[in-house]
Design brief:
Blueprint (H helix, E strand, L loop, with lengths): L12 H4 L13 H12 L10 E7 L3 H9 L2 H7 L4 E8 L16 H18 L3 E5 L4 H8 L5 E10 L9 H4 L22
Antiparallel strand pairs: 1-2, 2-4, 3-4
Length: 195
Amino acid sequence: MSTRIAEYPIHSQFTERWSPRALSGEAIARETLLSFFEAARWAPSSSNVQPWRFVYGLAGTPAFDAIFASLVPFNQDWAVRASALVAVISAKNWPKREGSETKPFGSHSFDTGSAWMSLALQAHHAGWVAHAMGGFDAARLRQALAVPEDHQLEAVVAIGKPGDKALLPEALQAREEASTRKPLAEIVAEGRFSF
């Protein structure tokens, strides 16, 4: 694994956490998985709306198979050894209140992203991998999981114990290391957008 070096002092959880694809296939206890969702539950949320929703399937179950079937072939090649697959979903509207119209909730994806990061960090602290993917067929997944139209499919997350990279297709083995990040100067500006 490559060494990640921060430009400024930060907690090591941020540089140590990464998204390997090599998974062992080891089963996950439901209680362990639920602890990851518990961490997500406590994420920051605009007006405490908590728009995030998670639908999961454990390996060897029809729910896992339904989520797996929505993945693009590239992701199926490695996610087949996940212990669980999780669909990350967000509610696009403010909760309906009596006497009011339904209104769009502008930060639903932003808030759900904070919940995903909380889940990822909790999994990392517990010695598990949580690898988010954007490569899936949203229409197929929506139908398979009966996700209403007023909810957005954000990602699918493969959860598992780290495995031997030799289990990966050859093309992925060379990529099985923690990636670097852009320097702060490319993502942070003072006063105005200047990138």
